[in-house]
Amino acid sequence: MPRYFTREHEWIEVDGSTGTVGITDYAQAQLGDIVFVEAPPAGTRVDQSKEAAVVESVKAASDVYAPASGEVTEANAALEAEPALANSAPETDGWFFRLTLSDPSELEKLMDEDAYKSFCASL
Amino acid sequence: MSMNTQGRISRPHPDNDAPDGAPATFTGNRALMLEEPLIFERDGEGVTGVDFDELPEVTSCLGGLERRRPIGLPGLTEPEAVRHYTRLSRQNYGIDLGLFPLGSCTMKHNPRLNERMARLPGFADVHPLQPIDTVQGALALIDLVGHWLVTLTGMHAVAMSPKAGAHGELCGLLAIRAALEARGDARSVVLVPESAHGTNPATAAFCGYAVESIPATQGGRVDLGALKARLGPDVAAVMITNPNTCGLFEPDMIAIGEAVHTAGGLVYCDGANFNAIVGRVRPGDLGVDAMHINLHKTFSTPHGGGGPGSGPVVFSEALAPFAPLPFVEKQGERFVLVEEETAAQAGHGGAFGRMTAFHGQMGMFTRAAAYMLSHGADGLRQVAEDAVLSANYVLRSLEDVLEAPFAGSGPCMHEALFSDAGFAEGFSTLDVAKGLIDEGFHPMTMYFPLVVHGAMLIEPTETESKAALDQFVGALRSVAERAKTGDSALKAAPVYAPRRRLDETLAARKPVLTYREPSLPAAAE
């Protein structure tokens, strides 16, 4: 399934019209130990590049932006119960939320894995 | 030559100052560094500092609602209670103990004259509900402080009641909202630059506004082009911190104000860093509509150094009619408090409401008045100049060992900002902070502002002498060099503090916030 990345270090994996969103391994390493995650509840409308979730580490609280617009169908309850998942498995079990994409053409603005890797290397 | 003939050692053995190798003591104390348990753990069964009479027999009227367990107050004798708190106080660090470089907090010395004035019974013992005619001196003092604030900021009016900085921000935004609604133009967005204080976006969100960030330039200032591009009919206000959280003056302030006003919005300025410009720059001349002033920063008595917070807000002419009640006003020879009942006839019918039950922090007004009057206008100007000089001394003394991302753009204002660039692999700002604790300093503000990686924000204030600054610079230089060379012992710091490195992650993930007696069953929760 195709996976896209943002300059703000979110990833989205797309399966048909459903997207799964999380933060990247680079992001979790920068944030440090994550102690709290607030993902949007099902039914929330999110807009591309706007705040969708909050992640709090020992160092700072940060907004997580929606990589694409749509309606949230599920927040990762396991992550909210165990925020450390965002550190240990950021790009798998530590996903934040799933959404139904309202405009898949928005994905064209995002980076693929290779582009994101070279973007991180440039930071 | 004087001989030591008693076998008394007059010099410490070089190994003796290494706690790791030092033998454990029976008490856990290390000489005068005393271990102290929680007061609940000091509880002695049946111990009390007071002799109570035997309780008479009473008939309960509580109908089965009587408490069945003791309420859990620890029992201590008076000397035990005194020692407990004295021991804890010895583990505290405050401005009265040493240099406190916490950036954006202006931890300056609190002159003892302030304390003497604040304890005068005419100020300290008044009650907010006393008849107005019996508190004329207190009202005159509030009016005096307000006059100084309005004069120093070049603004039109002042609300004295907000209790601290963020409360002042809320007050300012509520006035902005009231002004916009009064002209039938309720707007939904507040713009907050990346170089602003962290409380600003929280305040705007608390007021119900959508918060949008404006990026900082490479030079650590507001990106004027990006700000102008975002302005529009939905933008209620821009919240700017000037000098900003990178310790820099925002040179485009007037252009920002003009652009925001042209777009129909208002300008809020976070005045937390006013110490750097007091007596030198009047924010009213820069197009600011509302600004809070942390009396407990610029006008002494910082956190832990005296009284509580106090955050009066000054307003431009456009916002003055919406400032909250109550007001101190001089009517003839008499001071009055303008409250709801008299607001309309006193010309304050547009006031958006009130921030507090009463008039504000009287003790802080007294301290601020003492500070203002004892310094005078020229003294306050020198405060700003000396504070900026101290910060630049720190910046230039350390820029060869620590990366200073904005040092190339010229002098800083009240605080010096460094990044963690150049540290050895695996070493971070946190290690430097812990190393500073071993050196006997409170660490600087760290990991803020967010625009700088591993930020270290140092505000020395005008309090410190050159000798004190040199000692701090020497300590930080030594710790920074250890981080750069990868001295593994630094990862273990603090070594000399009563506690070693704490597990902050566990504390945040599984906080224990109340004391539970080990014997009580979990069901008691």
Task: Describe this protein with a few key phrases.
heterodimer, A: 123 residues, alpha+beta, OB fold (Dihydrolipoamide Acetyltransferase, E2P), six-stranded antiparallel β-sheet, three-stranded antiparallel β-sheet, 4 helices, 9 strands, 37% strand, B: 525 residues, alpha/beta, Aspartate Aminotransferase, domain 2, Aspartate Aminotransferase, domain 1, 3 domains, seven-stranded mixed β-sheet, 14 helices, 12 strands, 9% strand, globular
Short description:
The complex is a heterodimer of chains A (123) and B (525). With 123 residues, chain A is of the alpha+beta class.
CATH names the topology of the largest domain in chain B as Aspartate Aminotransferase, domain 2
Number of domains of chain B: 3
Percent range for helical residues of chain A?
10-25%
> Could you report the average pLDDT of chain A, rounded to the nearest whole number?
94
CATH architecture of chain A: Beta Barrel
- So how many helices of chain B? 14
Structural account:
The complex is a heterodimer of chains A (123) and B (525). Chain A is α+β, with helices and mostly antiparallel strands and 123 residues long. Chain A has 4 helices and 9 strands, in the order E-E-E-H-E-E-E-E-E-H-H-E-H. The mean pLDDT of chain A is 94. Chain B is of the alpha/beta class and 525 residues long. Chain B has 3 domains: 17-43 and 76-91, no CATH class; 112-370, Type I PLP-dependent aspartate aminotransferase-like (Major domain) (Aspartate Aminotransferase, domain 2, 3-Layer(aba) Sandwich), CATH 3.40.640.10; 386-500, Aspartate Aminotransferase, domain 1 (Alpha-Beta Complex), CATH 3.90.1150. Chain B has a 7-stranded mixed sheet, with helices on both faces. In chain B, strands 10-12-11 form a 3-stranded antiparallel sheet. A two-stranded antiparallel ribbon of chain B has the order 8-9. In chain B, helix 2 packs antiparallel against helix 11 (362-398) and helix 12 crosses helix 13 (466-485). The longest helix of chain B has 37 residues, at 362-398. The N and C termini of chain B lie far apart (70 Å). The chains are: A alpha+beta (123), B alpha/beta (525). Chains A and B meet through loops of A and helix 14 of B.
